[in-house]
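anyone seen this seq b4? input:
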Amino acid sequence: MIKEIKDYAIEGLENLKGTNPECADVHHEIFNTNYFIIGVAKAKEWINKFGTFDVIGEIVDYETLHFGEVYTDCADPEKVANMYAYIKGQELLDEIEIYHKLYDKKLDDKDLQQIINELN
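predicted toks r here
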């Protein structure tokens, strides 16, 4: 897994402590209410580490499967980087067993810490 995504997820989970979020909303809260990357140059550099066309291809496949069409402006590096982080963040959380067990529940700080522990 991409270390930056994992670190961002852990930080987001730490920030959710005290809010008792619905587990089903955790991915959205972490990866869709704030930007993973801000700045075109930084976004381009980050995307290039994974292969620009590979990243765009993964976004196209994901959005076509889940939304029926592509919504991300693939000419905008910030949007591409942030959507890629969104996808990889979902994949990361999908690997966490406790995340699935708690998916239909409100999370307390202990639950959030369990998810963090599994990420570490």
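The longest helix spans residues 77-94. The chain has one domain: 3-119. kinda curious what u guys think
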